[in-house]
Amino acid sequence: MTPGSRPTLEDVARLAGVSLGSASRALSVPEQVKPSTLERVIRAVDQLGYVRNGPARALASRRTRTIAAIYPSLDNPIFAVSIQSLQRTLWDLGYQLLVASHDYRPEREFDLLRSFVERGVDAVVLVGTDHDDAVFELLGQYHLPYVQTWSVDEANRRPCVGFSYHDAAFKMAQAVLEHGHTEIAICPGQSYRNERVRARIAGTQAALQGAGLTLRPEWIIEQPFTLEGGRQAVRQVLGGPSRPTVLICGNDLIAIGAMSECREQGVVVPGELSITGSDDIELASMVEPKLTTVHVPKVEIGSLAAHRIVSLIEGSPAVEGSPLSTSVVLRDSLKRIT
């Protein structure tokens, strides 16, 4: 090996005193070589600083052992936790993870997917079930396995790992009703190209209808999934001719932003306005008052999605699982009205 050049597999084999084939097998299928051979090869790799040629290996095996995941956002704590779980599980299964975000601009999803396809990935993890037809056409054209996460496909047409947003919203609305609230506003997120938000609205409406109530159109306040979105929701609520007794938020970030705005406006939570969230992020139990929210299976979604996508890649039998469960976590931000 000449000074300054990149070490090759031939250099590794020469230093380890083994054949080129043995060195290749030691790195690709270590369980098929003798322990003494594997030890010599690994020592040579460490000594030379050898890095395998990913593109060449992918051409030979027709696999990159890389999974792409496209998320709506990377600054939402629930996605961060789930991505960590997804990555750790894929790592244990021998795969790497590449992540991108379309920043809640679904029209960018196709471009991100095409970029991943051009770079070469074995499969794709998507969030939600509302995607352009072009996304599925591209996946089909390249025969790429995929798994949709977080939501469930009610028609059961495509592989999913997630929970029912309708049921989660229904449970929270029921809890609010059981606390005596009848003047209810919601800030579910933004429903454009987001079936999860539409399911939240429908689930809340279903619970209210069961109690003989209706959800006022002016109290369906669509805002981004951000702290500022929560602040804007409270400003809208306070600026109306009448005021609800509770604001049900589509995630904990919106809810925490709403509580912050209430403090700015001198509105006592939950004395004058109860606020609830969804996702049960770590901060939910640390803010004051502690936030009533919906616990969702963010870690399980990441881990199960990893197992499911690898099963699809490797052609292993995979049983379609039932929707994961959610539960309401009652804390101080929801007041009981007597």
How would you summarize what this structure contains?
The protein is α/β, with parallel strands linked by helices. It has helices spanning 9-16, 20-28, 35-48, 54-61, 77-92, 109-119, 133-141, 165-178, 195-210, 227-238, 252-265, 298-314, and strands spanning 66-71, 96-101, 123-127, 146-150, 160-162, 184-189, 220-222, 246-249, 274-276, 293-295, 327-329.
Q: Would you mind describing this structure in some detail?
A:
- The protein contains 12 helices and 11 strands.
- It has helices at 9-16, 20-28, 35-48, 54-61, 77-92, 109-119, 133-141, 165-178, 195-210, 227-238, 252-265, 298-314, and strands spanning 66-71, 96-101, 123-127, 146-150, 160-162, 184-189, 220-222, 246-249, 274-276, 293-295, 327-329.
- Helices cover 44% and strands 14% of the residues.
- The protein has 338 residues and is of the alpha/beta class.
- The protein has 3 domains: 9-52, lambda repressor-like DNA-binding domains (434 Repressor (Amino-terminal Domain)), CATH 1.10.260; 62-163 and 298-325, Rossmann fold, CATH 3.40.50; 165-296, Rossmann fold, CATH 3.40.50.2300.
- Strand 1 (66-71), helix 5 (77-92) and strand 2 form a beta-alpha-beta unit.
- Helix 2 (20-28) crosses helix 3 and helix 5 (77-92) packs parallel to helix 12.
- It is elongated.
- It has a 5-stranded parallel beta sheet, sandwiched between helices. A 4-stranded parallel beta sheet has the order 7-6-8-9, with helices on both faces.
- The N and C termini lie far apart (82 Å).
